[in-house]
Design goal:
Blueprint (H helix, E strand, L loop, with lengths): L19 H21 L7 H12 L3 H17 L2 H11 L4 H14 L8 H5 L3 H7 L4 H8 L9 H6 L2 H40 L4 H36 L8 H21 L46
Helix pairs in contact: 1-3, 2-3, 3-5, 7-10
């Protein structure tokens, strides 16, 4: 009987180099995993069995131990695929995934640099209260641990309260804050609406009466400006000028003040394209009505003319 021929060996697929993008992603993942181990792994290398065992141990302990268990869950999550991590949590540790997620969040919260030094004081509150306080700001929790308050409660008061009382107090405080924020937002919205209405009204046609009132208002403001210039400002200039010889001349300083005023006036004139009238050009129209009459043609009314004989004066021609 002849021997059977041996099967042909399968060809070994040649090794393919990794693409640059994949290599970059793998390096980034490796660096991230190492950063997690440096932060939570206490200098030990990653070993799944050891991490699961330590997590199971700490889960049965106090609040501080719960945070330690949360650290182990973080390490597992960063080193295991998503589906495998869920299986380990549910089968090996007997935890619902949601509970594991909260434990990781609590660990990240209370082991942060802002709160880690305050952990002994906060951990004394117990695991459940740490869960309830997890949504509070780090600054508020640090203040609570240092003797301050949170939601109007001191650390001792939080410790003496039941979890249900604490939850109700935090809920009521949150509702009050939301109500305050809502009122503030409504107020800001009302202010914005009034500002928009004022802006619209600013460019709405005023009509003859509105224009007349607006001109009167601007005229009063201009009168106040002139009154200040010719009153207190002029008085100040006179007092300062009277002491010019005591130390030094104040002419440059006074000239600078007037230059500033002139500059602002010129800015207004430029912004509103206003002409520059000389003082002589500001004579009202009624005073210029007979400006073209020759002096030689001017005569007094007849009833004002005199003969000059009664008082010795010459007759006005």
């Amino acid at each position: 009987m002849g021997r059977k021929a041996l099967p042909m060996p399968a060809d070994i697929t040649p090794e393919q180099p990794l693409t640059p993008d994949l290599m970059t992603n793998l390096n980034a993942l490796s660096e991230h995993q190492q950063a997690i181990m440096d932060k939570y792994g206490e200098g030990l290398p990653y070993q799944r069995e050891r991490i699961v065992h330590e997590a199971r141990f700490y889960m049965a302990q106090s609040a501080e131990a719960m945070l330690e268990a949360g650290k182990r869950l973080i390490i597992l999550k960063e080193n295991e695929p998503y589906g495998e991590f869920m299986r380990i949590v549910e089968e090996n540790l007997g935890l619902p995934y949601r509970t594991a997620a909260r434990m990781m969040q609590v660990s990240i919260k209370y082991l942060s640099p802002a709160l880690q030094a305050k952990l002994p004081s906060l951990a004394a509150l117990g695991k459940t209260k740490l869960f309830e306080l997890m949504t509070e700001d780090d600054e508020d929790l640090a203040e609570l641990a240092e003797g301050g308050t949170i939601a109007g409660l001191t650390l001792d008061e939080v410790d003496r309260m039941s979890v249900r009382e604490l939850k109700a107090k935090l809920r009521d405080t949150e509702k009050s804050l939301k109500a305050s924020r809502r009122l503030a937002n409504e107020k800001d919205q009302k202010i914005n609406e009034l500002s928009e209405k004022r802006l619209i009204d600013q460019y709405r046609p005023l009509g003859d009466e509105g224009l007349r009132q607006l001109r009167e208002e601007i005229g009063l403001v201009g009168f106040d400006v002139k009154a200040i210039l010719m009153g207190r400002f002029r008085e100040g200039l006179e007092k300062l000028n009277s002491h010019s010889g005591d130390i030094t001349s104040h002419a440059d300083y006074l000239a600078g003040l007037l230059n500033d005023i002139e500059f602002e006036i010129n800015v207004l004139r430029s912004d509103f394209s206003l002409p520059h009238h000389a003082v002589s050009e500001l004579v009202p129209d009624w005073a210029k009505a007979d400006a073209d009459v020759d002096d030689a043609d001017f005569q007094l009314p007849e009833h004002l003319r005199g003969t000059g004989e009664d008082n010795g004066e010459e007759v006005v021609q």
